[in-house]
Amino acid sequence: MTKKNIALVTGGYSGEAVISYKSAESILKNLDTELWNVYLVDIHPSGWFHPLANGEKIFIDKNDFSLTINHQKIKFDAVLVALHGTPGEDGKLQGYFDCLGIPYTSCDAATSALTFNKRYTVAVASFAGMYVAKSLHLFAGDGLQAEDVLAQLKLPVFVKPNNGGSSIGMSKVTEAHLLKAALDKAFKEDNQVLVEEFIKGREFTIGLYKSKGKVIALPITEIVSKNEFFDFQAKYEGASDEITPAVVDERIAQQVRDAATKAYHIFNCKGIVRIDFIYDDTRGLPCMLEINTVPGQSAASLVPQQVIAAGQTLQAFYSALLHECFT
To answer: Which CATH topology does 113-130+200-325 take?
Structure first.
């Protein structure tokens, strides 16, 4: 069997690039080189390039997303997306690959763009009958002040950039006088901000992917943050306990799996996604927080933990993602 050429894209134009490089490093170690010829492609503000071992950079021809090495042109059969933030998680790269007819492992351009916007995600989920927290969508320059927010939402609230991930720019606000500073912090990261009422409960996250046309739910992880919430430090610097698989009543676990699978279908997801929930004990329902269409794959990330807990190897998992994008 002829091996297929795979571009593993990483980097990006946002603060999440540092996480993208960690994800790509981990994926590279776990790709089956008997099946795939893998080329790392760094999508960097200075240009798109394939780094060679000697430090040389071979730049991508953006006309057809190809490389030329030693006078030999290399075209890619598929793209494995490991780029968090823009342009790999917001649909921009996916639209480019669609124009070129190159398959990829992530959600399509429309789904990526929609789910990258946290407000639009919960609005669509709510319209489809899913339980989401009450929230307010703010735009830079719209004139709304902290007191206007407090007139519509009850404290405590979460304030976060509307587009983005890794909890960068996010705050939990428990006192009214702290809200303005939290809004300013979030607006430094994005020109749109989501303010969301706090739901008390256990925090769960679950990875789902499609293989051979079937949606597969991975084991659930419970997040127990040592900080006020699951922020950047908790995610990537060890300030949380991540229990995989979660020790939880099977009735609750099935509710989370069912809600996640419903969301996967509602949003027409493809490839691996990770969906975050708060289980509201008062209502006895999982409250959907957000959908991550390019979840982290580093050693500290949740999806690899869930894959291992499911009894799979990461090598088989990444091969399944690549095989599926050809169907």
So the answer is: D-amino Acid Aminotransferase; Chain A, domain 1 (3.30.470)
